[in-house]
Amino acid sequence: MANIKNRSLSEEFLVEINKIIDYILNENKFVVTSHINPDGDNIGSSLAMCGFLDALNKEYIYLLDDDYPSNLAFLNKEGLRNTSDQVSSLEGYTVIALDSGSYDRICIDKNLLETAKGIICIDHHHTNGDYGFINYIDPKASSTCELVYNIITRYEDIKSRPIIGSEIATPLYAGLVTDTGNFQYSNTEPSSLLMAADLIARGARKQEIIENIYQKNSPAYYRILGECLNKLEIVDSKICLAIVTKDMLDKYGLEYGDIDAIIPYTRDIDGVELGIFIKQKELDEIRVSLRSKSHIDCTELAATFGGGGHIRASGCTFRDKSLEEVREMLLEEAKKLF
Predict the structure, then answer these.
(1) DHHA1 domain: which residues (predicted)?
(2) Start-end ranges of CATH 3.90.1640.10 in the chain?
(3) d(CA 71, CA 255)
């Protein structure tokens, strides 16, 4: 199927897309990475970029210093992902940072960023500060996967060479589906649906994606979900707060990455505008996911605590704070948003 011309391919973005393609064609060594606390768009855009570089016979390494959520591990079948401590030495490489809204959230050793030839930033967070020497940033795009799709299909048009097959289409589709909430969220545009149709036509394994992401929860997950929902806290009829402790994870034999599917429950209650999900990853590390429906900017709340993300979905991390301290700090700031 020919490239679908969509909203993102304006003249402004074509300039940046062409710069990225020209640079990749004229360089040979790349590090592909993304943001902390990986999600579907993070992983999907990274793996698709790796597939693109592979098709161009470029030398690359995929680095990410954080654990995959269990329901997304199926995407990395070839075991491409490495961590910074597995790298002995790198020289003459360029970093391609995908889906990372700020320099600080790039999830590799900062020494690798500082010694790189430069950073190419490809992202759709509206809070992005243009930290790359080439920046393709479109806050109106559904996902970073959509931006990677635009880059690859632009290359296909220029070179009249098909690149996207099943192995690239599948992670792109996974990132698109997760970042649009299975096409429920307000960031779903006509271009998103056209892209989805094209990826399915090119062999995206849609059913494999749906089964792994949405239909593979363990019995233990439903038990922790039940306990968590039983303790939901509704504040001022507008804010819903849920907490999963490290003790709860240990009790049910679950890992931190097994519980992300709980997040939407905090938002999807009649009358609630803002959902807050507090997850105690370790005794000294608490991660928070924020979700809103229509008018609260989650990035404003996340940024207060050094986090970031999207208007309707953001997150932040606390260290060396108790659960009660984190709860009180979040509620105090969240109430100001109303």
Answers:
(1) 248-335
(2) 7-213
(3) 11
Where in the sequence of the chain do the CATH 3.10.310.30 domains occur?
219-336
- Reduce the DSSP state of residue 77 to 3 states and report it: coil
d(CA 242, CA 278) in angstroms, rounded, equals 6
Integer Cα distance of 290 and 79 in angstroms = 30
Report in angstroms the alpha-carbon separations of 30 from 5, 8, 98, 158.
Answer: 28, 25, 13, 22
Closest CA to 30 of 132, 158, 116: 116
Full pLDDT tens readout for the chain, 338 residues:
444 444 447 778 999 999 999 999 999 999 999 998 899 999 999 999 999 999 999 999 999 999 888 889 999 877 889 999 998 778 999 999 999 988 998 999 999 999 999 999 999 987 777 899 999 999 989 999 999 999 999 999 999 999 999 999 999 999 999 999 999 888 898 999 999 999 999 999 999 999 999 999 999 999 999 999 999 999 999 999 999 999 999 999 998 888 989 999 999 999 999 999 999 999 999 999 999 998 999 999 999 999 888 889 999 999 999 999 999 999 999 999 99
Q: Can you name the residues that pair with 81 across neighbouring β-strands?
A: 62
* Helices (H), ranges, the chain: 11-26, 40-55, 110-114, 144-159, 166-179, 190-201, 206-214, 219-230, 246-252, 298-304, 323-336
Q: Are 213 and 177 in contact (CB under 8 A)?
A: yes
CATH fold of the domain at 7-213: inorganic pyrophosphatase (n-terminal core) (3.90.1640)
Which of 336, 261, 327, 268 shows the shortest CA–CA distance to 301? 336
Nearest Cα to Cα of residue 35 among 43, 23, 27 = 43
Domain 219-336, what fold?
Answer: Diaminopimelate Epimerase; Chain A, domain 1 (3.10.310)
Total-model pTM: 0.88
CA dist 199 and 218 (Å) reads 29
Report yes or no: 122 and 108 within 8 Å, Cβ to Cβ.
Answer: no
